[in-house]
Design brief:
Layout: H1 21-33, H2 36-49, H3 55-72, H4 78-94, H5 100-120, H6 124-139, H7 150-168, H8 185-194, H9 202-218, H10 228-253, E1 263-264, E2 270-271, H11 292-313, H12 316-328, H13 337-350, H14 354-367, H15 371-376, H16 391-404, H17 408-421, H18 423-426, H19 429-453, E3 457-462, E4 465-471, H20 494-502, H21 504-518, H22 527-543, H23 547-559, H24 570-589, H25 593-601, H26 609-617, H27 621-626, H28 628-652, H29 655-671, H30 680-692, H31 695-705
Antiparallel strand pairs: 1-2, 3-4
Length: about 700
Amino acid sequence: MTTRRMRRTREVTTSGEEEDSSSSSGYDLYRIQGNTNAAWNAFRKNTKEEQEEDERNKTILAYNLLLLGYLNDSQHKSDTLLKRLDEMERSVLQNESISEAIKKQYHYFGVYNRALVHFASGDTEQTIRIANDAVKAIIQSKVQPEDNNIPILTQIAFLLLEALLATAMGRHYGFQHEMYDCPHPDKILEWLDTLDIDEQDAPIKFMLTLYKGRVDLAHLDESGKHMDNKVRSARKELKTAMEVYQHKLRQCFGADTASVVSSANSEGNSSTHFHLSSSSGHDYQQHQRPSSTVLQKYGQSALNLKAHLEQLKGNTKKSLILCSEAQASTKEDGSYDAIHENNHAVVYGTSGKCHLALHAMSKALRATKDPKDIAASSMFHNDGTVRRDNTPEILHNTAICALQAKNYLSAYECMVACITRSSHFRSRPRCWLRMAEACIGIFSELNEQHQRNDLSFTSVVEQGEPTGIIMEKSMLHNTMEVKSEELVASIGSAADVEQVKRNPLLRARSILEITIVWSQRKSTTDRDVLIAAQLSLVYVLLAFKDYSEALELTSKVLAEENREPGPVSLYRKRQFATARMYAGEALLNLSRAKDSVNLLAGDAKDESFGPLAVDLAGVTADQAATNEKAKAQLAKVEAMVRSSCSAAYAASGDMETAKQLANSAAALEDAHGVKHNQSDARNALIYALLREGQQFAALNVLTTFR
C-alpha cells in the first residue's frame, strides 16, 4: 500500500477540499512507520467518526481498509484479494457520482496492485501482461496520460521492468519482451527519462538510475557475455544512484536510518522491492515521508548491484564484503538469509571455487521454506513490500554449482525441483539441458567404474602357449552397455531418481528430445542450446547403438557450420569438431569405414589431423605454444583423434596407416603420462593388429602394458 510519488505538490485532485487529518494519519502510520495494524485501526476509526464523507472518500477508505486488512490477515489468500480488488474496481466504475478522471486513477491503482500480487506469488508472466496492457500505448507515445496519473504509471513501469528483468535472468540472449508484445526495457527507460522528475523526488530518481544499471547488465553479447560498454554504463548509473541515496534519499526518508536491507536476485543482480499501492485523498500529492524500512531496501539493492559489478571485475573479496554489508541490517529478518547465502555462492562459483559455492548453496537451501509453509505465509512484509519466494532461483543456482563440482545426482535433483516449483524455469530449454548434462555425468561416473572393474581382454592359452584373445568389451565402444527399459513417467519421483542412478541415459534421451523442440521455438530460439542438445543426444544415441539416427543428427549440426554469422568462435569450432568425431564413429559402425576416413582424415596426410584436434581441444596453436596446460590438453586430444582415425583406417583395410597413427598417438600419450589401462592408442593398435591377423603381436602389446 505504500506508493512512490513523482511531484510533491499540495494541490488536490478534487474540487479543492482540504485533506482529512485522520485519514492522512492512518496513511502516514503505514508509510512512515510501516505499521500495518496501527494504520488499519486508524482508518477504521476514521470510518466510524466521519459519517458525512463524500462518496469518493468512502471509496478511498474502503480500498485502503481492504489492502491493510489483507496484510493483517495471516490466513489471507491471493485469489481472495484479487477477487476483492476486481469487485472494488467494478463498484467504482459503476458509481455515477465519481468523475471519469478518478475512475481512471482507480483503474491504474487496481492494475498495479493486481500485477504486484501476481509478481509476489511468482507469476512473472501474468505480471508482465497486466502491467504492459496499462502502459504500452503510453510508452509508445500513442496515448498522452493525465498529469495526475503519471505517479502510478511510473510505478507500473518500474514493476514491468522488474518482471522483464526476472524473465531475462540467466538467459544469454536477453529480454523476452517480444514474446509478450511488450516495449523493450530500453524504451521504457527512455519514457521514464522524458518525465519531469523534480529534484525532491529522490525515490523516483534513485529507482530510475538503479534500473538503468540493471538493464545495462542484462544486455549480453551473442556469446552470453557482458558487454564492456554496458558494464561501464552500469557503473556510472550506480554511482549516480549512490549519490542520490546518500545526499537526497536518506534526507527524504529520515537520516536516522543508515542500514540497508533489500535483496538481490539469484544471478547476483539487485532487486527493488515493490509495495501494494493504497489510495489517498490526494493520490500522491501530499508531502509525506515514506517508511524507513523502504529506505533500507533501496540501499540494499544498490549494494547488491555494486557487489555484482565487483564480481564482474573479478574482485571476489570486495564483492563478498558488499554482500555482507547488504545483510548487516537484516539480522531480525530471516527471510533474507537464503538470498544472502545464494549471493555468496554466486560470487564463489564465478571465481572458480565450486565447492565453497556448493557449501553456501546448501546453507541457502536450509534457509528456504517448505512449499506448504510458503503457501500458508504472507507474500508481503509488514510494510507492504513483497516477500517473494526465491526458492526456484536458489534451486537453479544450486544445480549449476553441483554441476561445476561434478556432483551430478544432486544437480539433477535440484534442477528437477526447480522446474517443478516454477513454470518460468520449466519453460527454459537451458534448464532441461542442464538436467540432461547431469544424467550424462552420472553415466560417465558409472562408465568409469565399469572400466576399472572389467578387463577389456582375456588371453586364450592352449598347452601352455597363447593362441588368441577374447575381447570382453568392444574396442571401439569402451563403454558400459545401455539397456532399454520403460521410462518412469513422473520426473523427480523416487522411482525416477532410482532409475536415473541405474540407467541415466534413458532419462537424458527423453529430456534432450524435449530440449531440442523447445529451443527451436521462433520466439525464443537459442542456437547454443539447440546445438549443445543435439550433440548431447548424439552421444546418447551412440550409447544406445542407434547409429543411423545419430548420423542424421550430426549432419544437421554440421550443416550449421556454413551458416555461422561472422568469425566462428572457439566454442562453436569445438562443437563442430565434436560432431565430426561422432559422425565418424556412427559411419564406422554402419560399415562405412571409407566415409569415416574421409570425414575424419580427409587426404590421409598426417598434418591433416592438426586442425581437427585444435578445434576439438578448444585452444589455439599459439596458446599451446605458450601455455603448458593448453599444450597438454592439445596433445591429449590429438592422441584421441589419431586413435579414432587409426580405427577407421583399420576397418577400411589400410593397416599400415592405422598402425602408424596408433603408434604416434601412443607416443603422445606416453609424453603426457596417460595410464596404459586408459590408453585409446593402445586399444587402437591392438585392434589394427587383430584386423591384420597378428594375434601374437596384439597379445604382446596387451601383456606389455598390463
